[in-house]
Amino acid sequence: RKVQIHCHTTRSDGKSPPEDVLRFYAARGYSAVAITDHNKLTILPDDPMPASTASGGTGVPTPLRISGSEVNDTAAEKSRWEGHHVGCLFIATDTANWKRASLPDILGRVADQNALAVANHPDLSQPWTLEELTGIQGIWAMEVFNGHGYRSFSERDPEMARVLFGKRILW
């Protein structure tokens, strides 16, 4: 099964509206899609379109829709490209007022909603450290590939990749 847990729409810096993003992943056989617009909660209706429409006419069921947002921590003082980016999945409240909260505060807010926190594109301008990825309570997953062309962990830090993933190479 394929699952997309980090994508954006025209509600932040994406190029397509939420319904079109859902159609795109449905047509490619994804089982679930989390739209994680920057500092905005995007929730798609339970059944925004018939399965045949969502999947481009193939009749494939629409993917599970996961509520989500992407939030930057306090290290992002100048732009959204700085700091740690946390994917907040299965959340129920908007994250607009979470901008530039501390990392522990963001993780606490996610945990308070029984939701999941993801370390998004951990090789951005302020990379996540091995200590953060292994020592901070509340990070449940880590993005290991991002379509923006960032280096994978295996390329950037082979030792970190070995500690986190054993002998498996991730691309």
State Rg: 16 Å
Report the major sheet: 4 strands, mixed
The span between the termini is: 18 Å
The parts where pLDDT drops under 50 for at least 5 residues are none
* CA-based shape: globular
Query: Would you tell me the structural class of the helices and strands?
Result: alpha/beta
Estimate the helix proportion, in percent. Answer: 10-25%
Mean pLDDT: 77
**SSE series:** EHEHEEEHEHEHH
Total beta strands: 7
Considering the chains and any ligands shown, give keywords for the structure.
single chain; 171 residues; globular
Give an overview in words.
This protein is 25% helix and 20% strand. By secondary structure, the protein is of the alpha/beta class. The longest helix has 10 residues, at 18-27. A four-stranded mixed beta sheet has the order 4-5-6-7, covered by helices on one side. It has a three-stranded parallel beta sheet with strand order 1-2-3, covered by helices on one side. It contains six helices and seven strands, in the order βαβαβββαβαβαα.
